[in-house]
C-alpha cells in the first residue's frame, strides 16, 4: 500500500508458551482512521506495545515513513510523532488538565540545569507561553477548555479519557494509537471523540489506529477495519465487508453486529 506512514511487518510476540502475536502485518496511511478489533486476548494491546516500542517483538519490524524503527525506544518514537494512549489511564492526577498537556510538550527544549535556566530564562518563558497556548487550543478542540484548571485526578472516567487523547495531541502527532479511548464515555463524549479523531485525520493528515470494543463506534469512524484473533489477522476491509465476513461473525461479532 502506498503512502503508509506506519507499517508493521510480520510482528511476532511470545510470552513463554503463549504466542500473543504471530506474523501480524498492518499499515496505516496519512489521513486514515483504521480500526483494530478482536476478542479479549486477541493481541491488540500487545500489537500497540510492539509498535510504540514498549515491547520489542520477537519477530518482524516496525517502519515509520519507510524507516525501520524496530530498535528505537518509545521516547524516540514519540518524539518523531508516533504517540499512543493506554487502556489504563496514565494521567498525572495531581496536575491540572492544562498542566497535563504542558508536560507532554516538555521534550521540545528544556534540560540543562540551573545555569541553563538562568542563561536562557527569556526563551524558556516564551516556550512555556507557547506550550500553554497550544494546550488551550487543543483543549478547545476537544471540548475540555472549561475543565482546564481542574485536577485531572478528580475527573470522571469519560472526561479523563478525553484528556488522555488531548494530551497525545499536545504536540501534533503523525501517527496516533488509541487504546480503547471510548471506554467509560457517554454517548455525547463519544461523539466529541469521533469529531476530534475525524478532524485530526482529515485536516492534519494524522494516521490513526483505533483499538475499541465498541464495535458500532469503530464501524462508524473507520474506513477500514482489521480484525485480530488469537494473534493473527483474521480479516480486514471496509466495515461492511468485515461485518459480512462469516469468520469474523463466528470469532467476534456474533450475529447481532
Ligand atoms: N505480560 C504478559 N505476560 C503474559 N501473557 C501476556 C502478557 N500480556 C499479554 N499476554 C497474553 O497475550 C495475549 C494477547 O493479550 P493482549 O492484552 O494483547 O490482548 P487484547 O486483544 O489487547 O485483549 P483485551 O481486548 O482484553 O485488552 C493474551 O493471551 C494475553 O493473556
UniProtKB/TrEMBL annotation:
Signal sequence segment: none
Keywords for the protein's UniProt record, in alphabetical order: ATP-binding, Nucleotide-binding, Transport
Keyword Transport carried by entry: yes
PROSITE patterns linked to this entry: ABC_TRANSPORTER_2
SMART domains: AAA (SM00382)
Source organism, top-level taxon: Bacteria
InterPro entries documented for this protein: AAA+_ATPase, ABC_AA/LPS_Transport, ABC_transporter-like_ATP-bd, BCA_ABC_TP_C, P-loop_NTPase
GO MF annotation: an example: ATP binding
Key word Nucleotidyltransferase present: no
Domain ABC transporter: 6-255
Protein name (Swiss-Prot/TrEMBL): ABC transporter ATP-binding protein
Native source species: Streptomyces fildesensis
Amino acid at each position: 500500500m502506498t503512502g503508509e506512514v506506519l507499517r508493521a511487518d510480520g510482528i511476532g510476540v511470545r510470552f513463554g508458551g503463549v504466542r500473543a502475536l504471530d506474523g501480524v502485518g498492518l499499515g496505516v496511511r496519512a489521513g486514515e482512521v483504521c480500526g483494530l478489533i478482536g476478542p479479549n486476548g486477541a493481541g491488540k494491546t500487545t500489537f500497540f506495545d510492539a509498535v510504540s516500542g514498549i515491547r520489542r517483538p520477537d519477530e518482524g519490524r516496525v517502519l515509520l515513513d519507510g524507516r525501520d524503527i524496530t530498535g528505537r525506544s518509545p521516547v524516540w518514537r514519540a518524539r518523531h510523532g508516533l504517540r499512543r494512549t493506554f487502556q489504563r489511564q496514565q494521567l498525572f492526577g495531581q496536575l491540572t488538565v492544562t498542566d497535563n498537556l504542558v508536560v507532554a510538550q516538555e521534550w521540545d527544549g528544556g534540560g540543562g540545569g540551573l545555569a541553563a535556566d538562568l542563561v536562557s530564562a527569556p526563551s524558556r518563558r516564551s516556550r512555556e507561553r507557547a506550550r500553554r497556548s497550544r494546550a488551550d487550543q487543543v483543549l478547545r478542540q476537544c471540548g475540555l477548555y472549561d475543565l482546564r484548571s481542574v485536577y485531572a485526578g478528580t475527573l470522571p472516567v469519560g472526561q479523563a479519557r478525553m484528556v488522555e487523547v488531548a494530551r497525545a495531541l499536545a504536540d501534533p502527532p503523525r501517527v496516533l494509537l488509541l487504546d480503547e479511548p471510548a471506554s467509560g464515555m457517554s454517548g455525547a463524549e463519544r461523539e466529541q471523540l469521533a469529531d476530534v479523531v475525524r478532524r485530526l485525520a482529515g485536516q492534519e493528515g494524522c494516521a490513526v489506529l483505533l483499538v475499541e470494543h465498541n464495535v458500532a463506534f469503530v464501524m462508524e469512524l473507520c474506513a477500514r477495519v482489521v480484525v485480530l484473533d488469537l494473534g493473527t489477522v483474521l480479516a480486514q476491509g471496509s466495515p461492511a465487508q468485515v461485518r459480512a465476513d462469516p469468520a469474523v461473525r463466528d470469532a467476534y461479532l456474533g450475529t447481532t453486529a
